[in-house]
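Box 3.1 — From sequence to structure: Acetylserotonin O-methyltransferase
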Amino acid sequence: MSCTEDLEYPQLLIQYSNGFLISKVMFTACELGVFDLLLESEGPLSSDAIAERLGASTNGMERLLDACVGLKLLGVEIKSEGAFYRNTELSSLYLTKSSPKSQYHHFMYYSKTIYLCWQYLTDAVRDGRNQYERAFGISSKDLFGALYRSEEEMIKFMQFLNAFWSICGKDVIAAFDLSPSFMIWEPMGGGGVGGLAKECISLYPNSTVTIYDLPKIVQVAKEHFIPPEECRITFHEGDFFKDPVPEADLYILARVLHDWADDKCLQLLTKVHKSCKPGGGVLIVETLLNEDKTGPLEAQLFSVIMLVQTEGKERTPTEHSKLLTAAGFREIQVKKTGKFFDVVLGRK
Ligand code: SAM
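Predicted structure (token representation):
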């Protein structure tokens, strides 16, 4: 599309204004179980059958299904008796709850929690800080106390974190040859569902991974997510700002630094450097901004999420390198994975 066409009719802006409508249609179909039902059913189903089985109105369901067809989330076959809907391969793989690559919990967190917080984006930009007080009436002095404001919210957050690793975890762990490192420490909490830890032991079967997190997260991870017979994954309860960090060969900080301002990142990295065995290192896993911050859009948007919900931000490779160097790490290497999360490695 040329610039002239852009100015004659603001196609791009109309497309952008539809952004949340599109997300909400996908999230709602997930939440109601449309994709799960179509996966289980023997063949395509009519909107009446889907509405009845899911306890929804026929009037509402037909419109939702047609919008899903428009979004290529469903296929449709028009017969003399009416329209019959089926999943596309993409929906079966990523939008059903039972798929090993399911993004159901990822999208439910967006639909419920993030969507709600983003109603206060204007305030977040004005104030330059997260919006827990306005959105939920709670103080964010203790950031993770606010994020884990109820047991239900904590589990939803953990499931959200874990979903991503089923589609990006392997690329992150395989980005560098980590084979000399076998004692791995990761504050990964719900990720604690063990997504990244499981990728570590799958790629490096001789490694052991210690999941380090706040006590209540470790308890939930043990109870719900890591089978007790998996002896290569162990747990360590602690507060990484207050308590000692155990000695290890490799420290993985996945989506940890983006929660915090530079001073807290430096405090944590310095502690990690002190405990790191000589020759070991730290692997930072984050979505990286371009050096001039002109993209990628996914990283720019994630940084806005960080504004609304945390004390941190997304960073450029140079910003990460500066923090790592200030903490004492050297030989800093950056790898883009081509997927959502990239990797920065620093050595001691
Ligand atoms: N690394 C995991 C992943 O990528 O799936 C989790 C990332 S999550 C955004 C940040 C994690 O840091 C949470 O599990 C949280 O409980 C943990 N965390 C926050 N503050 C902490 C603290 N003071 N001490 C230990 N863990 C903390």
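Summary of the box: The mean pLDDT is 92.
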